[in-house]
């Protein structure tokens, strides 16, 4: 992590040198842009959300956040800001389109769409996180996952192609799934029930 991004925790970025302010913003931008762009699929919208999120973080940043968790916290704030932005804009769009719909019917429909938007965003983010975790695995783990989930090979077919036993394939797949699960638990702070 760059030390310049730590300056976001000071809460008084305006007192910094303009060049340093720009460096902090660029570091923040590079951190959250891919995630936001993945969700909204529009460059201008992503830029707007990043600017709003940056200002929000400057105004309300907790000064006691652990440096090791800063990037995860910044991504979480950006993700939540993106979801809020989508909800707000979806609500405006629904209001414009629902002039001829009774208000009793529109309110539950809008709430259902907002929750489905959040669920859709969460699913996309989780899928992206899983793909990132897979790319970080050992090559053999990546290979068996690709063979099983993308190529849809049976354990027997995988064992024949790799020249190992079916039991070894089962064991390797189990270990790869456990590695992904541990990475996701660390990144998403998910605990098993």
From TrEMBL:
> What are the record keywords, sorted?
DNA-binding, Sigma factor, Transcription, Transcription regulation
For this protein, the record's SUPFAM superfamilies field holds: Sigma2 domain of RNA polymerase sigma factors, Sigma3 and sigma4 domains of RNA polymerase sigma factors
- Annotated signal peptide: none
- Residue ranges of every copy of the RNA polymerase sigma-70 region domain listed in the record: 25-91
Q: By which gene is this protein encoded?
A: sigM_2
In terms of superkingdom, the source organism counts as Bacteria
Question: Gene3D superfamilies this protein is in?
Answer: 1.10.1740.10, Winged helix-like DNA-binding domain superfamily/Winged helix DNA-binding domain
Entry keyword Ligase: no
Coiled-coil portions = none
Q: What is this protein called?
A: RNA polymerase sigma factor
Instruction: Return any one Pfam family short name.
Output: Sigma70_r4_2
Where do the RNA polymerase sigma factor 70 region 4 type domain residues begin and end?
A: 128-179
